[in-house]
Amino acid sequence: MEFEGKAHKFGDYINTDYIISGRYKFGITDPLELSKHIMEDIRPGFYDEIEQSDFIVAGRDFGCGSSREQAPLVIKTAGISAVIAKSFARIFYRNCINLGVFVIECNTDRIGQGDKLILDIDNNKLKNKTKDIEIPINFIPELVKKFLLVEGVIKYYKRNKGLRL
Amino acid sequence: MGKTIAEKILSNHANLSLKALDVAVCDVDFCYSQDGTSTLVIDSFNAFNEGQNKNPFPKYHMVIDHSAPSPSQSISRVHDKMRKFCKQYNLVCHDIGEGVCHEVIANQADVLPGQLICGADSHTCTLGAFGAFATGMGSTDIALILSSGGKNWFKVPESIKINLHNKLPKGVYAKDLVLYIAGMLKADGCTYKCLEYHGKGVNTLSMDARFTVSNMSVEVGAKAGIFMPDDITFEWLNKRERLNKHFTKSEFKDCYPDSDATYWKEIDIDLEKIVPQIAKPHRVDNTCEVTKVLGTKIDQVFIGTCTNGRLEDLRIASKILENQKVNAETRLIIAPASKDIYIKAIKEGIINILVRAGGCVITPGCGPCVGTHSGVPAKGENVLSTANRNFKGRMGNPDSYIYLASPATAAYSSIKGKISDPREIYK
Fold it and tell me: Which among A12, A61, A69 is the top mutation candidate for probing chain B, defined by the most B β-carbons within 10 Å of its own β-carbon?
């Protein structure tokens, strides 16, 4: 499995309130409508900048704060193929693998805004095409990979007829 | 090798001897969700359950607290969907005005020390105050529990032992302690860890104080924040009116860590040395001593939430506001954390004092904390809140500034119209 797209760079501690504000997530239940407000409070107009299969690239503790699953849901619906960050908050990380949103941990310092990236899941590789460098990524735990490769926990559960790890 | 409380509780629920970083399927004792997360729980449950027509795991409650009563047609649709789902499957739905989910569940559901509790709300860790392993999850994780007869997978966290010594000084409260911890450990200082509170200082903290501390465990990234049950816990457990059961310590032998347990880190905190703390915009760990920001103008004060809307908090606020007036240029909003607290506060005369002082009491629930209703600040305004988060836009306006502090600091600042040190009262 391989994804190719450009990087949208964010800083440290991007919380789930920033990813999708509480003033939208309660009332709007259509994921497509909701995703138009992605990152609105910190980067207005972000939704229009996203092209299918692009990446969100960030610093430390991406997804901290609220447990709202609408956060990974709008990321997925907006067309983002993976979130690449130095580290992730726990609940957000679980929510991503449950929904089949790829979460990749690595040092993101050598990825700039708009850089073209290729993420090769099978071989655990991340290439920055713009800078022509390869960036080592943290090992994706086997259980996490199992969920992600079938697009999340619902399909995993159905295929395995239960919660077999 | 001995076990931490996290290792013990998760081992008990997996029927395996687990140690930190192990992954296992565990039996969950109780789960819940609120109106910001329940529609996705229902959608995911229906997806898991497609073509099967199975009933959900029955130890599950829904709570309508985040936008209650509904401020809009779209949110009314959400509430309607929740009520219908609960009716269909004969589940308990705590409707508008019952209170914030964590407070309602702690007091009205059959939840106990040593249990494994999951909630579709990040502040589920609040229930660690009475010795449960309680953790926040997303909606699909809760739907998985509902679909699997109460099971989910867990990674056993490493634990951080926090030893509390001595006693908080006058005018300093549990909120100051937990803001001090957030400032020290930072927002990701405990990611995927369990915080365990130990030491003689724990005995000086009431249940309401412990709920405040456990509530904000997630603000340093922790999976849970646990106080071991003691006499104060059992007194509280046995006072839960709606459950009417009597518990003794001997029934909860498995809720205590072994003396030779291994901790990832140990931290000592001298409670006597803590001074009033405040979190400045727009991060919870952006803390300083209140004295560093004295005089900052405050347009709105909010006392309430799952962090600080309990009876003790309202009592502290009312003592400060008795025979006083809220500053003419400041608004004071109060949301009791539950209906039970509201009733007790009325009986004690607390509500009378708060309203006479100029406070505006709103429906028990989350109030303006999540920015959907009941006190959205205007552009450029400063808010002083007793909540747990001050992210940009959190209260519904990205152009406002939120400060977090104790109910005492909030109440005293509401009189002065600016950030003020509540210790001045005791001078």
Answer: A69
Closest chain A C-alpha to B8 CA, distance in angstroms: 21
User: Is the same domain home to B153 and B15?
Assistant: yes
Measured between beta carbons, the chain B residues lying within 8 angstroms of A23 are: 371-372, 376, 393, 396
pTM above 0.90, yes or no: yes
Q: Choose one of B254, B271, B288: the last residue of a domain.
A: B271
The answer to whether residue A164 sits within a structural domain is no
The total domain count for chain A is 1
Select from B248, B271, B294 the last residue of a domain: B271
Q: Same structural domain for residues B418 and B315?
A: yes
Which token pair is A149?
A: 């490769």
Cβ contact (<8 Å) for A69 and B138?
yes
Chain A residue with the nearest C-alpha to that of B48 = A154
pLDDT at B166 > cutoff 80: yes
A64 contacts chain B (CB < 8 A)? yes
**Domain identity same for B49 and B89:** yes
The reported pLDDT for the residue numbered B395 is: 97
Q: Give how many domains chain B has, as a whole number.
A: 2
Are both B57 and B138 inside the same structural domain? Answer: yes
Report the DSSP pairing between strands B277-279 and B287-289. Answer: antiparallel
Q: In this complex, do B120 and A67 lie within 8 Å of one another by their Cβ atoms?
A: yes
Query: What is the structure's pLDDT at B217?
Result: 96
Q: Is the torsion defined by CA of B353, B354, B356, B357 positive or negative?
A: positive
Tokens of B76: 């009314």
Q: Nearest-CA distance from B247 to chain A in Å?
A: 32
- On the question of pLDDT at B44 being above 90, the answer is yes
Which chain A residues are within 8 Å of B25, Cβ to Cβ? 163, 165
- How far does CA B253 lie from the centroid of its chain? 26
pLDDT by residue (tens digit) across A57-68? 999 999 999 999
**Beta strands per DSSP E along B315-369:** 331-335, 359-361
Q: Is residue A155 part of a domain?
A: yes
Candidate from A29, A61, A67 with C-beta closest to B122: A67
Residue with tokens 């130095």: A86
In a shared domain, residues B220 and B345 = no
B302-357 confidence digits (pLDDT tens) = 999 999 999 999 999 999 999 999 999 999 999 999 999 999 999 999 999 999 99
Other C-beta atoms lying within 10 Å of the C-beta of residue B347: 9
Q: What is the pLDDT of chain B when averaged over all its residues? A: 97
B196: CATH: 3.30.499.10
Is the minimum CB–CB distance between A162 and chain B shorter than 8 Å? Answer: yes
A91 contacts B37? CB cut-off 8 A? no
- Beta-strand runs (E) in B176-305: 193-198, 224-227, 265-270, 277-279, 287-289, 300-304
In a shared domain, residues B402 and B259: no
Q: For chains A and B, what is the number of CB pairs under 8 angstroms?
A: 141
- Predicted local confidence at residue B253, as pLDDT: 83
Note down the domain range covering A140: 2-159
